[in-house]
Design a protein that fits this description.
By secondary structure, the chain is an alpha+beta fold. It folds into two domains: 5-83 and 148-335, BirA Bifunctional Protein, domain 2, CATH 3.30.930; 363-452, 3-Layer(aba) Sandwich (Rossmann fold). Helix content is 33%, strand content 27%. The protein is built from 15 helices and 23 strands. It has helices at 5-15, 36-55, 71-76, 79-82, 99-106, 118-127, 171-176, 178-185, 230-247, 293-302, 328-339, 375-386, 399-409, 419-424, 445-452; strands spanning 18-20, 32-34, 60-63, 84-89, 96-98, 144-147, 151-154, 162-165, 191-200, 215-225, 255-259, 270-277, 280-289, 308-309, 316-317, 320-327, 340-344, 350-354, 365-369, 391-393, 413-417, 426-431, 437-441. The strands form seven sheets. The protein has a seven-stranded mixed beta sheet with strand order 3-9-10-16-13-12-11, sandwiched between helices. A five-stranded mixed beta sheet has the order 20-19-21-22-23, with helices on both faces. Strands 5-4-6 form a three-stranded antiparallel beta sheet. Helix 2 (36-55) crosses helix 11 (328-339) and helix 5 packs across helix 6 (118-127). The radius of gyration is 25 Å and the shape is globular. Bound molecules: glycyl-adenosine-5'-phosphate (GAP). Glycyl-adenosine-5'-phosphate (GAP) binds at residues 169, 171, 201, 203, 212-213, 216, 218, 220, 283-286, 323, 325-327, 329-330. Glycyl-adenosine-5'-phosphate is lined by residues 169, 171, 201, 203, 212-213, 216, 218, 220, 283-286, 323, 325-327, 329-330.
């Protein structure tokens, strides 16, 4: 079975995971709207992440900072000056590309463009006569830097409006609140701040469905520590980040670490976890040693001291930060790709099934009356189960078709109501993966499912 992005995109659209943004206006490039099933899937992934990194992690605190921040934040972070990509335009077809992507694609990943200067990128493209992937011509403009931050304005009087930015990452909200969180929680170093929220980037070459979009959600986790412990914490963060993506269902064989070739001057280490998407091995998340860079810049630009005072030793210092950052949409895409399967059944038919971890699945259980005149009892069961779980109710079509529909959205359990249910209050529960069925009393369904969907 070949797993292609096209198959995933088509299934997502037809089953209500993800629709093209503003579709009735012919869409709006690289924006996507999550449908009824997709929003459940993404919310479950975000909840699992929050549970793991906030609820179950000692000394971890969640925040939800504003998207619009004082523009000085982005001067301090270096984004106003330096957050840009090297772009080249094809003069023949007017398409725009990232020069580093052109090099990596041409060299089939054997050349790492991440560490190359613009001059080196341009030399490679000229020496190898790298052609435009769209029209096939070799007719490039020189490289220019393309700003990735979206600007908007604040103020009511035209001409007196101030430029503000849509945040391109969520972590700055964690840095500027570092002392607020430390003081209000009386946290002692090492401690972590977590946040989930929207980020915006005017990407040069967005694409590949949810992989690179202009608006996306990030789940970011900053650990503030003593520099002498920072490499141990970095290693531990790598381990926890890998464990999490395996636990949400990504197979170990489709995951690998990729150390960065080029480190920022303040960093002692940086890596990504890559996932084997249908488009190849690509970054899923980043883990970065950020030294004291972010806090020292905010201290400098705000004029406010951000040092931590150790209550035992009275030592005052700026902590080192270990950052872990993962895109919720990109992880949702990886989970969809991993879960997708086409199976040939005994009768020769093919079933498309999404093998989500039950905790992540959009709906936990579907209630299916075998006949329409059983719907009253089925509605009762639905009312009972929907107090605890996201449930589907479906009485349209043959039972086989209804099972197929649930398989395609990854519902781990289907409960059928038949005439015996009216007599003895039992139902049949079917497991999505094994397709095995068993009889259970109605009052045992909730504990049965609750135990299976634990994360
Ligand atoms: N604060 C660090 C930071 O933002 P990043 O490597 O630029 O680091 C972190 O982004 C993660 O956010 C990526 O690994 C990816 O999962 C996600 N991400 C970044 N840009 C994205 C985009 N344009 N579309 C979807 N997800 C994106």
């Amino acid at each position: 079975m070949e797993k292609t992005m096209e198959k995933i995109v088509n299934l997502c659209k037809s089953r209500g995971f993800v629709y093209p943004g503003s579709e009735i206006y012919n869409g709006f490039a690289n924006t996507w709207d999550f449908g009824p099933v997709g929003v459940e899937l993404k919310n479950n992934i975000k909840r699992a992440w929050w549970k793991r990194f906030v609820q179950e992690s000692p000394n971890s605190y969640g925040i939800d900072a504003a998207i619009l921040m004082n523009p000085k934040v982005w001067e301090a972070s270096g984004h106003v000056q330096g957050f840009s990509d090297p772009k080249m335009d094809c003069k023949s077809c007017k398409q725009r590309f990232r020069a580093d992507n052109l090099v990596e694609e041409h060299s089939k990943g054997t050349v790492s463009a991440e560490a190359m200067t613009n001059e080196e990128l341009e030399n490679y493209i000229n020496e190898h006569k790298v052609k435009c992937p769209h029209c096939g011509n070799f007719n490039w403009t020189p490289i220019r830097q393309f700003k990735l931050m979206f600007e908007t304005s604040r103020g009511t009087v035209d001409g007196e409006k101030d430029v503000v930015y849509l945040r391109p990452e969520t972590c700055q909200g964690e840095y500027v609140n570092f002392l607020n969180v430390q003081r209000t929680t009386r946290a002692k170093i090492p401690f972590s701040i977590a946040q989930i929220g929207k980020s915006f980037r005017n990407e040069v070459t967005p694409g590949n469905f949810l992989f690179r979009t202009v608006e996306f959600e990030q789940m970011e986790y900053q650990t503030f520590c003593k520099d002498e412990n920072s490499l141990d914490i970095y290693e531990n963060t790598k381990k926890n980040a890998l464990q999490f993506v395996e636990d949400v269902g990504l197979k170990a064989e489709n995951l690998r670490f990729h150390d960065h070739d080029k480190l920022a001057f303040y960093a002692k280490a940086a890596c990504d976890i890559q996932y084997k998407f249908p488009i190849g091995w690509e970054e899923l998340n980043g883990i970065h040693h950020r030294g004291t860079w972010d806090l020292s810049r905010h201290q400098e630009f705000s004029g406010k001291p951000l040092q931590y005072l150790d209550p035992v030793t009275n030592e005052k210092y700026l902590p080192t930060v270990i950052e872990y950052s993962i895109g919720a949409d990109r992880l949702t895409l990886a989970v969809l790709c991993e879960a997708y399967d086409e199976e040939t059944l005994e009768n020769g038919e093919t079933r498309v099934v999404l093998h989500f971890h039950p905790a992540i699945a959009p709906y936990k259980v579907a209630i299916l009356p075998l006949q329409k005149n059983l719907s009253e009892k089925a509605r009762e069961v639905y009312a009972l189960l929907s107090k605890k779980f996201m449930c589907e109710y479906d009485e349209a079509g043959s039972i086989g078709k209804r099972y197929r529909r649930q398989d395609e959205i990854g519902t781990p359990f289907c409960v059928t109501i038949d005439f015996d249910t009216l007599q003895d209050d039992t139902i049949t529960i079917r497991d999505r993966d094994s397709m095995q069925q068993q009889r259970l009393p109605i009052n045992e369904i909730i504990p049965y499912i609750a135990q299976k969907i634990e994360f």
